[in-house]
Amino acid sequence: MTDFQHDINIDQTFFQEDLSAIEQRSQEEKTPTDKVRPIKKSNIPLIASFALGTMFILLIVSYVLSSTSKSITETAQPTQTPTSQQVQESDIEKEMRLIESLIEDADPTNNTLPLPPISYEFSIGKSE
Amino acid sequence: MIKSKQSFFCCLVVLFLGSKFLTSQNIRAQESPEPSQTPLQSTPTPEVDFQTYLNTLEKYRTSEQQFGIAKQQYFQLGTLAALEQATQRSLKAQIDRNSVLDLYFQLLKSRFAQTAGIELREKKLEIDRMEFILDFLSTQKASLEKASTYQQLDKFNAELKETQESINTVAYETLILKKIGELQTVLDHLTSISAKVYDAVEKTPEKERGYAEITKTLKEADTSLNKTIRSYLEEIDSAPSDADIYQEIIEALNDPYMKIKQAFKYLQELES
User: How close does chain B come to A105, measured CA to CA in Å?
Assistant: First the structure.
């Protein structure tokens, strides 16, 4: 056996040993040693209430955040409060428009409901 | 176990109420500012559909034409069959005429009741008159539906013919009062708004003269309207309202109307 052949044999042995180690590891992974602990029935309401409580807290947080962003937007765009003069002017404009339509309706020549053109002569005339 | 259940339900209730509260807050934040409260309005009388009235009138016109043809045929042929046909046509035409008058007075009453600017006593009196006519029409319709002979139909036709004058008088009176009420309403609004406009505008000698002219024109319109009302009241004391009186009053009302229009034009100029 040459030195070269000896080296090859050593390598093969090493390789085989390595392969068996990998196989063993994969087998170990396939069969987990730790088992999942079952949830006790008595703990379900506790877990549910914890989840609901968390949701509630999240809800409050989201509300606080949205209101904060709203107030920021409002600060950036301040709403213009109309002055009393502006209010009065818009009231006057509204009333002017109302009067305009009332004037149209009040036109004496505009009769929207004239007497119906009916005949009072439906006698056959035989009984007269 | 019981304690856990209680805490679970407590959490559920708190979560539900919390979400409700937050949702309502969010909706309120999105809503536009609350509109100013409008004054309570009296419930208006439900108005008869105007289109229904027009359709009924159209139906009546067809019936009237068909009666005319049937009556003509009876006079030409002189047969029992033609007489029966004319009787049936007369019945239909009278029922349709009754419906037209009924819908007309219902519409008129409803619109008149909604018109402001009329003295309440006068308004009530006119509404009572219309209700009397509506009652009469209702009674006659019930009788017509039972009628089967031409003698009965001729009798009902004669009855309505006797009330024709009353029907026309009430209708014309209502139309005149309605027009007077409309003009009075415009005048009241215009007087009120002109003072507001004057308060709002910058006081210059030109604007002062403009406001004085508006006040003068409105006063003239008021005088003219009152004069027409007085003349109308004198007129109806001596004779019942008819088409001629209606036309006369409508022409007289044109004067205050033109003055109101002029005052409004001045006011628009003053406001701009």
Answer: 7
